[in-house]
Specification:
By secondary structure, this protein is α+β, with helices and mostly antiparallel strands. The chain is about 25% helix and about 30% strand. The protein has 2 helices and 6 strands. The strands form 2 sheets. A 3-stranded mixed sheet has the order 2-1-6, with helices on one face. A 3-stranded antiparallel sheet has the order 4-3-5, with no helix packed on it. The longest helix has 18 residues, at about 5-20.
């Protein structure tokens, strides 16, 4: 389960950021997660609690914002939300997409903390 190593990295990175800010108590870590990140959301949530145990983040929450899969269609010349990772074709014209615009994210984007 590689989600545990990802959770440990999130905790370590967050602890480093809190230290750079001069300390504080983290209440929540906000993460963007795309369907192509290769991470199972529920496994990451469970792993986060284990990774945070015994650290300054113990008791904090990991809040995951799921990012939709968005691709660029060369036929329509537009970006569209794709229905699934198994179908990388434009939902309007059925042309294969030429690039994924969103959906690979695995990014901590905010911390809720008290100084």
């Amino acid at each position: 389960m590689h989600e545990l190593s990802i959770a440990i990295s999130i905790v370590e990175m967050t602890e480093n950021e809190v230290e750079l800010k001069g300390g504080g108590v983290v209440n929540a870590v906000h993460l963007k997660l795309g369907p192509l990140a290769g991470v199972v959301k529920d496994a990451l949530l469970a792993s986060y609690d284990m990774a945070a145990e015994g650290t300054t983040l113990e008791g904090s929450k990991l809040i995951i914002e799921e990012v939709p899969l968005v691709g660029y269609c060369p036929g329509c010349q537009t970006e569209s939300v794709l229905p699934s990772i198994q179908s990388l074709t434009c939902p309007r014209c059925d042309t294969p997409i030429s690039r994924v615009v969103k959906g690979r994210e695995l990014e901590v984007f905010a911390l809720e903390m008290m100084l």
